[in-house]
Amino acid sequence: MLSPLKLDNLHVAFPVVQAALSGYSDWPMRVIARRLGAEYALCEVMLDEFLVAVRQRKKTRHFLHISDEDRPVGGQLMGAEPEQFTAGALRLVEAGFDVIDINFGCPVKKVLGRCRGGYHLSQPDVALEIVRRTREATPPHLPVTVKMRRGLDDSAESRDKFFTILDGAFAAGVAAVTVHGRTVEQRYNGPSRWSFLREVKAHVGSRTILGSGDLFTPQDCIDMIAQTGVNGVTVARGAIGNPWIFAQAKALARGEPLPLPPRLWEQREVLREHFRLAEELYGERCGPQMRKFGIKYSFLHPKANEVRRAMIGVRCRADWEAVLSQHYAEDLPGQYAGPEAHRSQNTCEAA
Q: Which listed residue, of 134, 167, 214, 221, carries a Cα 20 to 30 Å from 260's Cα?
């Protein structure tokens, strides 16, 4: 088995965890992932100014919803100004999150245009001021972590700024840094440079580094750890509609063969429970929220195109159940999701 993931005093038993995914990694997705093998998950990224202003109203309460089954859970924060960032972090602490994660990695254009996310990789002084203030404002027993990309681009200047922020973040007391192997300029295109992750891990020594980028299969997760030496990995797009990836990675880590993909009745029960959890959180009008999950789940079905077309029409529980009754009635073997299941999508725009 792989070594546990250490985030200061918090030890995560298995180091393949679910990443923060804006619009996806809400409470229902995290709970399903936890039940199927994820030992730690991060909520969807939230803006500091949103957190300062938000109240526990029906339309917004889901952003801060956590439960005992969800723990440990990380709250990911994104913003522009150090002062506002600190206030946002305190709201996450008040809401009960176990880890505060700082987002310096989002490559979405409108986020960069507002000096958030990956933009901070261009200004180490501001980035490190955010890290220091967040660490100081967060109770000492709660880990603070940072998410980064390998730089704005592949210039020497960008590389120097990356390592300035990396070293400064650890000096300020962060428990771990997650490094995505693409640049901000790449967004979600092109390969993730795992060789850079190996270089980063060698640079920091015993400090905790998590890797990210191109983790679409359980074997990818095991390979990244083996090839780069990182302490753990965060699965992003590869976990949407495939929460079984965590249990499958555990099997590989134990030296067992890759488990067969879930059969349709097992898939059906998970899809039904996912919808029930969403209904519990959002109410009866959760159909549009679940539609995008259903489309992703469809890639595990042997008739993926048919199921995907059916999922596009989901508006309510009756529609969801109709898809399950029609396409999951027979307990056929499932299939592994192909490359088309992981086409680029924006996954870090904040609420």
A: 214
